[in-house]
Amino acid sequence: MPSKVVLKFRYGNVARSAKMLKKVEDMMERRDFLKGIGLAAAGVSMPGLVTTGKAAVAGARGKKPNIVMILVDDLGYGDLSSYGAKDLKSPNIDGLVAAGLRIDNFYANCPVCSPTRAALLTGRYPDMVGVPGVIRTHIENNWGYLSKHAVLLPKVLNRAGYHTAIVGKWHLGLESPNTPNDHGFDHFHGYLGDMMDDYYNHRRHGINYMRLDDKEIDPTGHATDLFTKWSIDYIRDRAKSGKPFFLYLPYNAPHAPIQPPKEWFEKVKKREKGISDKRAKLVALIEHLDDGIGKVVSAIKESGVADDTLIIFTSDNGGQVNVGATNGALRGGKQDMYEGGIKEPFCAVWPGMIKAGGRDTERVALTMDLYPTICEAAGATFEHEIDGQSILPALLGKEQPKKNRYLFWVRREGGAYGGRAYYAARYGDFKLVQNSPFEPMELYDLKNDPGEQQPLPSNHKMYAQLFGALRNHVIKAGAVPWEKYPVQM
Ligand SMILES: [Ca+2]
User: Fold this and answer.
1) Do 151 and 33 form a contact (C-beta atoms < 8 A)?
2) Cα-to-centroid distance, 136 and ligand 1 (Å)
3) Is the bond leading into 260 cis (omega within 30 degrees of zero)?
4) Hey, which bits of 239-319 come out as E strands?
5) Of 52, 106, 112, 118, which sees the most CB atoms within 10 A?
6) Residues 108, 315: contact at Cβ < 8 Å?
């Protein structure tokens, strides 16, 4: 059925007001896009196209919760006390883990920054919104351009009555139309870029990407301290408003350069006998981050909104091993599709709603699942297609069957990767994985081989199943450009 016919059928002659016309235009654009990726052909069902958050949870207490989404940068699976670190003290994050539900098999959507952030804020696989790799300053080393079709979380939450803010690292575009404010955030206090070359001067390639909304700013201080302070200011201000808020807090710590405040480094060196300077720096950067998170949590409590606030904590990818990170017993680290690159610490806290001290050891969830989870908690509804699935019932301790689904990971990169992409795919306990576009894929049974040490033969039936499912995903994602057209080299 051609899209115009569908629209006429669905809307008849009601598209009179400018608002309705805009809605119709948006639908046309969306349907054209879906048609482009082969989902809107006549008579073809579109599973997941109509996905709605349910208002029931938000209404359970008669009020919508505030939501604080803390995303840290490059934190390894073994680099929290609660995840087994012996030379590191993270009492504040551990306190969150103890106060809520921990999910052991929580995965980032990618082993590097931008794609995971795209998945969190769109609910889609990163390559379905134009971000298969890292967005960077120079076109020769840029591997993503956020699709104009992407509907970001703040837009949906705004419609549900939320004030929305991002404090910290954006990393989904350096200019309009891909700034945080363009995509619906009411408030942006942070930086646009991929990383800082220095935690104190905040520059990248000598360029200042620090912003307060669209205004360039040049604050002084360690980036972690700035983001902590700005978050606290925001929370205190919004707590008085009586309107629910969504605070997305993507700290850039403990991403390289490993640059903790001097006194934090000295404290670790004094406490941990025999620790190397390299490891001590990373430990100090994480402990300083943990302290900042503790201050943010205290501000939520002191503002009197702790009982009405859902806090979610995770990391965007695994720890970078060559700067001293550990990923526990997992193989590999940042950039790898092995578990060490993508498996992340995760917890969700909501007093009285999520039981304290819970631990889910079975469920597999990804960053993209947080989009519908947050929407459901907020009573925010939407009708566009996403790839993620809400895990809110599981967080609330309700019955939620653990259904197997095909899951995919992609990363496109330059350098030795030559601009090509490499992938992983998973179904149940089986995972097909490569860590470079030039390597053959390997199949592992994670249940019996969580350390990914013993590849199964390529004639195993799951190899072909995962290989075929991944091929179909690559075809779908092929309809979405990941550079701005035309490219100016
Ligand atoms: Ca990262």
Assistant:
1) no
2) 13
3) no
4) 245-250, 309-315
5) 118
6) yes
| Centre of ligand 1 from the C-alpha of residue 159, in Å | 30
Among candidate residues 41, 53, 55, 50, the one with its CA nearest the CA of residue 3: 41
- Active site residues per annotation: 113, 171
Around ion ligand 1, residues with a beta carbon closer than 5 Å are: 73-74, 113, 316-317
- Token pair recorded at residue 449: 């081989």
What is the phi/psi pair of residue 277, to 5°? -60, -40
> Per residue in 277-308, pLDDT tens?
999 999 999 999 999 999 999 999 999 999 99
Q: How many CB atoms lie within 10 A of CB 169?
A: 28
Q: Cα torsion at 98, 346, 166, 325 (round to 10°)?
A: 110
Question: What is the distance between the alpha carbons of residues 423 and 454, in angstroms, rounded to a whole number?
Answer: 19
C-alpha 126 – ligand 1 centre gap (Å):
14
All domains in the chain, ordered by first residue: 3-36 (no CATH), 56-395 (3.40.720.10), 407-477 (3.30.1120)
Interatomic CA distance for residues 301 and 306, integer angstroms: 5
CA atoms within 13 A on the CB side of 58: 22
Q: What is the mean pLDDT of the chain?
A: 90
Distance 99 CA to ligand 1 centre (A): 25
Q: Which DSSP category does 456 fall into?
A: B
Lookup: tokens for 472 = 């179909």
Distance CA 263, CA 253 (A): 17
DSSP state of 353: T
Q: For residue 175, give the H/E element and its range.
A: none
Q: In whole angstroms, what is the distance from residue 435 CA to residue 442 CA?
A: 10
Distances (CA, A) of 318 to 71, 115, 376: 12, 13, 27
Return the closest-CA partner of residue 296 out of 254, 263, 249. Answer: 249
Q: Is the predicted pLDDT of residue 440 greater than 60, yes or no?
A: yes
What is the whole-number distance in angstroms between the Cα of residue 297 and the centre of ligand 1?
Answer: 23
Amino acid at residue number 114 = S
For 115-139, letters b (16+ CB in 10 Å) and e give bbbbbbbbbbbbbbbbbbbbbbeee
pLDDT one-digit tens code per residue, 26-77: 443 444 343 333 333 332 233 333 344 444 455 456 689 999 999 999 999 9
Helix (H) or strand (E) holding 153: helix 153-159
Tokens representing residue 333 in the block: 């680290």
Q: How far apart are CA 9 and CA 284, in angstroms?
A: 61
Quick: pLDDT tens for 330-353.
999 999 999 999 999 999 999 999
3 state DSSP class of 301 = helix
Integer CA distances (angstroms), 323 to 205, 231, 244, 260, 327, in order: 21, 28, 39, 13, 12
Counting beta carbons within 10 angstroms of the beta carbon of residue 384, is it exposed (0 to 12), middle (13 to 18) or buried (19 or more)? buried
CA distances from 180 to 191, 193, 451 (A): 10, 12, 38
